[in-house]
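Appendix C reproduces, verbatim, an entry submitted by the partner laboratory led by Prof. M.T., so that reviewers can inspect both the input and the predicted structure.
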Amino acid sequence: MQELIAQATSVQERVFPLDFSICTLVSNRQEYQEMMASFVEAGFSLSTSEFLYVDNSKKNQFDAYAGLNIMLQRAKGRYVILCHQDILLNFDKRDQLEQRITELHTLDAAWAVAGNAGAVGPNYIVYKVSYPDGTLKDKGKFPLEAQSIDEHFMLVNNVAGLSFSADLSGFHLYGVDLCLQAAAKGYKSYVIDFHVLHKSRGNVDNNFRRCRKNLVKKYSHYFRSRWIQTPSTSFYLSGSRVIKVNKNPISLFCIRMWNGVRKRMI
């Protein structure tokens, strides 16, 4: 037992052999090569960074949730960049990103996900991104804690050990899924001041609507009010401020009785 304790190290002390892992789903190999070249030119050298990709150029072998999970599991970098193949680091470089990372660590040791675009709340979207037509979207006093991060550029703090949902699929809304997974583990997400070029503006089609429906269904069930029983205690979970079952012995008794009746009826 003493030897096991002596060898144990916290997640925070884990040593990563590389600084960055850049992970991408690839459907156009030429476009990916251009993206990769822009990263190398921006300071992400092959000696300190690795480039991982899932090759979907001939057919979709993996969707975003499954493919990015594979790369997250294999990433050797202290920080993992999950990005689209159609971005270019034409503006901010590695030095600027490292400055933003330092700011996050100073601000909040429990940060896990960051990006250059996302939503802080309802109708409150912030971003630092340019498009090929010269349009610059620059809104927000960064860094800002976010509910969701846009998928074209996501930075993951690898010590958090995050993963995407195994019961969701597709190529949309995996950014908000990752932020929700981080929150469930006690971490936070942020939008940071890191300027990139994104060649596309996204596409809200039937596949997007299907992904949205499935994500809402999953998390509506996950965040439902429920009765929890353990071998040593029982309690009721609810986000409602109106329902105070755990502090009301009468309500607690009634729910216990109802659950007993239900159990006999099944």
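The CA atoms of residues 29 and 194 lie 25 Å apart. Additional entries are available on request from the coordinating office.
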